[in-house]
Design brief:
- The chain is an alpha+beta fold.
- The chain contains 2 helices and 15 strands.
- It has 3 domains: 35 residues; 81 residues; 190 residues, Jelly Rolls (Sandwich).
- The longest helix is centred in the first third of the chain and has 65 residues.
- It is elongated, with a radius of gyration of 35 Å.
Length: 330
Amino acid sequence: MMHYPENTVQNGYILLPVILALTILAVLSYQMTTESALNVGSAVRNQEMQTAKYVAEAGLQHAIWQLNQANCSGYSDFTNESLGEYQYNTSITPKNGSPVTVIATGTDANGTAYSIKQESMKVYQTYQTLILQPGSEGKDAWVDANSPKDNFGKSNWMTISGNPTEKYFLGYFDLSSLPLESKIITASLEMYMASVTNATSSSSFSLFRMTQNWIEGTGDWWDARDGVNWDTSDGSTTWTWPDNHYSIKAIATTKINPSFDGWHSWDIQKLVSLWHSNKISNFGFLIKADSSVQDAGFYSSDFKNTSKNPKLIITYTCECGVSCVVGNSP
């Protein structure tokens, strides 16, 4: 029987944990290397997929652009359309009318593909423009805090002022000639300013929507009591400011050039859309000036030169297959 020196046995027991630790470290190192490689590969695939998605979205937008130009017929597919080193394909079914289904597939440089499908997509007709610029049959007036009982419904000159006395302009446009199912793309109110007593380059006019009905009246610089004034909505029914309009936030604001006489405009697309869809009642609008403006004069719908009357310019469209003729409203 052989006898090993005691220190040799002890050294063996000491080395065993070291060997086990090294083995474990080697296994862990291998696993980490493998996982790292897998993570890198996964990151690359994710990046390729994201790139293909962006290319597919570009193809989808190209298809939508074509639909908007086609005026409801003859829709074309795109095949191997290049986008730098990438490509996309699109298909549209059916090829006419609305709604349609659009499928766009983007492919990156390594062949990774991603598809987007949009069903029941509405397609619209070519945009049309409607200009509402009424003459004396129009509805507008101005009210003066310093003449609270007077009506100025038939004045050809509408005054807006923020100082020293507040004077507001009230206007209304009849939207019944818009096709019932039309979609409002743009809507711009335009008014012709003929003069202003005082203003600065930072002066502004803000437009608000009215929340109560009002009567235009027949007043023209005299004490008429048959229409809207500062104190009443119709010459007799009391109302208060600001309860008669939505004063929390202006719909639109435009700057004034004090040295410029001419057209000023307000973007009221959202307001006109709400009126047209009957989501809110159309009681017209109110225009106020800030405190730096004194007596700005705008022509009204009663001005003799009707080309300078207030006007509302509306761009609209209808879904393919829907009658989109002016006057096609209930």
